[in-house]
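Exercise: predict the fold of this chain.
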Amino acid sequence: MTDFILLKKKMNERGLSMTELSKRTGIVRATLYNRLAGIGEFTASEITALTRVLGLTNKERDQIFLNE
């Protein structure tokens, strides 16, 4: 289960809007909104793009996307 609060915190720390994050990751803006609203699950390629753009460590990535 995705830790949406931590993911949004990381977005805010980097000063990225949804639109800017969408552009930088290549994830369609509507898809990004849906994922953050809990509709659907992030794909491996989306997680990879978000990790890169947000500068997440492997530990942070796991905390956000592999949180059970």
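Check your answer against the key: DSSP finds five helices and no strands in the chain.
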